[in-house]
Amino acid sequence: MNAPTSVLLAEDDAAIAEPLARALSREGNDCVIAATGPAALDRALSGEFDLLILDLGLPGMDGLEVCRRVRTAMPQLPVLMLTARTDEVDFVVGLDAGADDYVGKPFRLAELLARVRALMRRSAPVDDDGDAVFDFGDIHLDTRARRVVVDGEDLTLANREFDLLHFLMERSGEVVSRDDILSAVWGSTDLRSSKTLDMHISWIRRKIGDDSDRRRHIVTVRGVGFRFDP
Hints:
Elements: E1 5-10, H1 14-26, E2 29-34, H2 37-44, E3 51-55, H3 63-73, E4 79-83, H4 88-96, E5 101-104, H5 109-120, E6 133-136, E7 139-142, E8 147-150, E9 153-154, H6 159-170, E10 175-177, H7 178-186, H8 196-208, E11 218-221, E12 225-228
Parallel strand pairs: 1-2, 1-3, 3-4, 4-5
Antiparallel strand pairs: 6-7, 7-8, 8-9, 10-12, 11-12
Helix pairs in contact: 2-3, 6-7, 6-8
């Protein structure tokens, strides 16, 4: 991608926002800072940005609410959430709000930039012949329409969720390693130390009903990766 990417950095602490914006600019990005939740939401919904880096503790409207509204209106916009609250409860809440990844403060700049690069890889990672349809009982996935139907009900999936489910369904019955999934769906294994993959698996399971009493389709194979059971 030759054109510079546009990053909206929603962070009210100038001591963090300004050096991070400079680092993002050195990486070839156009970076705009928003210091409040309402300002971040307005700018994000303008459609002019390729990535939102979102602090959890923004004044005026917290990052969780900003993320929920952005995710509803713009499901394709990648969101990287920043927070000083890194316990498991806050982590899960942040991911449930729709963040694509989650970085705790204080963070190492090199790691954060690696997460940004991974999220910014926008080329379609999963090969698609344009008309593949997968039917496994209660789950129907159509790659041309980018549509998933479960028990006759259309699901709303973000791009990464759709690509991940497609990748697993295409290899149904096979154990797929975590690195293979990250390489295919995210275009990089830079995120292997983050919880991004597990978060997306959790979201998909909930949306397709795998957290109900019926048989689970997406199975965790400990120490290896995941398997889709038709």
